[in-house]
Amino acid sequence: MKKSMVMIIIAAICVLPGCNKAEPKDAPSEPDNLPASAQLAQTGQAGKSNERSEGFVFRFNNTDIIMGGAADPIIEALGEPREVFEETSCAFDGIDRFLYYNDFQLNTFPLDGADYVWSVNFLTDSAETQEGLYVGSTLDKMLEIYGDGYERENEMYRYKKNGTELAVLTENGEVIQITYYWLDDSGANVVQ
Predict the structure, then answer these.
(1) pLDDT digits (tens, 9 = 90+) for 37-87
(2) Cβ within 8 Å of residue 191, ≥6 positions away
(3) What are the pLDDT digits (tens) for 76-125?
(4) How far lies 173's CA from each of 135, 136, 177, in Å?
(5) Cβ(110)–Cβ(91) under 8 Å?
(6) What kind and span of H or E run contains 109?
(7) Among the four 29, 58, 84, 85, which has the fewest Cβ within 10 Å?
(8) For the ranges 28-32, 121-125, 150-154, 180-184, which has the lowest average pLDDT?
(9) CB contact burial 73-108 (16+ within 10 A = b; e otherwise)
(10) CA-based nearest residue to 69, from 116, 120, 121
């Protein structure tokens, strides 16, 4: 229970962006300017288990959660979250939503009247990447699965793939947090 509470606190600190006085990034207004994963959202196919992104994808109960994909079909497929938090978006015109399910948190951002998946943060060791990494895995297992093609800052390992990022935080050789992100065209986190 103590470990679960620590994970929720870490998730809240790392994932809730909060507004600051920095200039927001310009949101792409044309579908062609969106990463491939968001372009998939424009087709209405995001969130269906038979559709794949070329980036990192989190799969839960046969639903592919595609970073940058349309949020509504994904949320519908996942069912009712146990909790929802909303706040005015700092980077876009509209409301950012934070949907809490039992084992993960799904975060969305608004763009041109629709919501898109910004990130997924694992809250328990029951959530697992498609490749088999979960909170509690060893650093060695992460390296075995994903290799050494990461950017590292202290104990945060960032793997980037086709407009998405898999961020893995470790402590003492153990994975303590896993988050998927959608990246903008410059390769930066879309909201921060």
Answers:
(1) 444 444 443 333 333 468 999 999 999 999 999 999 999 999 999 999 999
(2) 17, 89, 90, 91, 96, 109, 118, 119
(3) 999 999 999 999 988 888 999 999 999 999 999 999 999 999 999 999 99
(4) 12, 10, 12
(5) no
(6) strand 104-111
(7) 29
(8) 28-32
(9) bbbebbeebeeeeeeebbbbebebbbbbbeebbbbb
(10) 116
Q: Where are the domains of the chain?
A: 2-15+33-182
Amino acid at 182: W
Integer CA distances (angstroms), 149 to 60, 86, 139, 142, in order: 25, 35, 14, 11
Question: Both tokens of residue 57?
Answer: 């994808």
The three-state secondary structure class of 121 is: strand
For residues 149-155, give the mean pLDDT. 96
Asked if 42 contacts 34 with a C-beta cutoff of 8 angstroms, the reply is yes
Q: Determine contact, residues 184/190, Cβ cutoff 8 Å.
A: yes
- Position 18 pLDDT exceeds 60: no
**Calpha distance 162→51 (Å, rounded):** 16
Q: How far is CA 84 from CA 59, 67, 69, 75, 175, in A?
A: 20, 19, 19, 12, 26
Residues in the chain: 192
